[in-house]
Design goal:
Strand content: 15-25%
Bound molecules: adenosine-5'-[phenylalaninyl-phosphate]
CATH class of the largest domain: Alpha Beta
CATH topology of the largest domain: BirA Bifunctional Protein, domain 2
Number of helices: 11
CATH superfamily of the largest domain: Bira Bifunctional Protein, Domain 2
Number of domains: 2
């Protein structure tokens, strides 16, 4: 600071306040503080000059220096708060959203058509008193085959090409693998469950076959269960799922774990039975495999086959969705092509 006459103190104060008003950002206000109020700043130099005053003027000069210092400190605090508010406003402005812009529409997801049908099938069976039972995807050979009356050398194993995870473990080839697991939980009491989920088969991928697909299994075991119950349950299901006028028919078939075994068809959902390309002009569509649970399987599940009987059925979900929506290629389901999937958004 250049040596100034003492009566310039007020002039200095006015000038300092004027430059403070020009400090409108953080950098400016810090620089002003360093120049005026910091220990090395001008205000302290004024303070140092108090002692150099003639004794009779010292007190009055000291009071003037204090007044100036207080005025600068107060003004500084006020300006500092104003600058902080300004900086906040600027940073909000930098990130802010223009509320006058038209809103972006929310893209909501939709359920995969297979999920929708699984839920629908589950709902129908839950209404009939069935509970959902989950069983493992990575399954012991024992539950997938052996306990279902398919020992290691049984020719029926060829019906289901299998992904082996180890000598004893497979990716389940059908939801029937959960049958004995469910029975062993409930036996000797009655059981009424559905078992939904993915199944895996080492097959060639074609228009109608995938290496992974969903099935829903049904299992009902009790004292007075008979084949007519199978027909009743499946007719009720078909009517609730496809309409009140639906009809079903049973054809003889073969599964090692049911005796007798049947294939169940429903009247074609597209042509109502008149005959069309989808039902190959037969008027009927294959819906599922079913039968009375084989006595060996009941025994493996912990029941006495002389005391109880059971019905079981297993349907393929992808093929059912294909029938319902007229989809001609099963591969669409696993390709995640949004153009395909968006058609099913409700
Ligand atoms: C079975 O899997 C038996 N477990 C069904 C069963 C359960 C019979 C209970 C008796 C008692 P199948 O191999 O036919 O049966 O398969 C049942 C359904 O799964 C088929 O009708 C079909 O809709 C579906 N399916 C089978 N293989 C494939 C595949 N590779 N791709 C898509 N769906 C398939």
């Amino acid at each position: 600071m250049q040596e100034q006459p003492e009566n310039d103190l007020e002039t200095y104060q006015d000038e300092a306040l004027a430059t403070l008003a020009l400090a409108t950002d953080e950098k400016g206000i810090e620089a002003w503080y360093r120049k005026h109020l910091a220990p090395s700043g001008t205000m302290n130099q004024w303070r140092k000059r108090i002692g150099a005053q003639p004794a009779e003027q010292r007190k009055a000069f000291g009071a003037r220096v204090n007044t100036a210092a207080t005025a600068l400190a107060t003004a500084f605090e006020t300006q500092k708060r104003a600058v902080a508010a300004l900086e906040l406003e600027r940073s909000i402005a930098r990130q802010s959203v223009d509320v006058t812009l038209p809103g972006r529409s929310l893209t909501s997801g939709g359920y995969h058509p297979v999920t929708t049908i699984i839920r629908e099938v589950e709902r129908v069976f839950h209404e009939m008193g069935f509970l959902t039972f989950e069983s493992p995807h990575a399954e012991l050979d024992e539950f997938n085959f052996e306990l279902l009356n398919m020992p290691a050398d049984h020719p029926a194993r060829d019906m289901q090409d299998t992904f082996y995870l180890s000598d004893r473990t497979v990716l389940r080839t059908h939801t029937s693998a959960g049958q004995v697991r469910a029975m062993r939980i409930y036996a000797p009491h009655p059981v009424r469950v559905i078992l939904p989920g993915l199944c895996y088969r080492h097959e060639n991928i074609t228009l109608r076959s995938e290496i992974q697909f969903h099935q829903i299994e049904g299992l009902l075991v009790g004292k007075s269960v008979r084949l007519s119950d199978l027909k009743g349950v499946l007719l009720s299901f078909a009517r609730k799922m496809f309409g009140r006028e639906q009809r079903i028919r049973m054809r003889g078939s073969y599964f090692p774990f049911t005796e007798p075994s049947v294939e169940v068809d429903i009247r074609c959902t597209l042509c109502g039975g008149a005959g069309c390309r989808v039902c190959k002009h037969s008027g009927w569509l294959e819906l599922l495999g079913a039968g009375l649970v084989h006595p060996v399987v009941l025994a493996n599940g912990g029941y006495d086959p002389r005391e109880v009987r059971g019905i079981a059925f297993g349907m393929g979900i992808e093929r059912m969705v294909m029938l319902l929506h007229g989809i001609d290629d099963i591969r669409h389901f696993f390709q995640n092509d949004l153009r395909f999937l968006r058609q099913f958004r409700s």
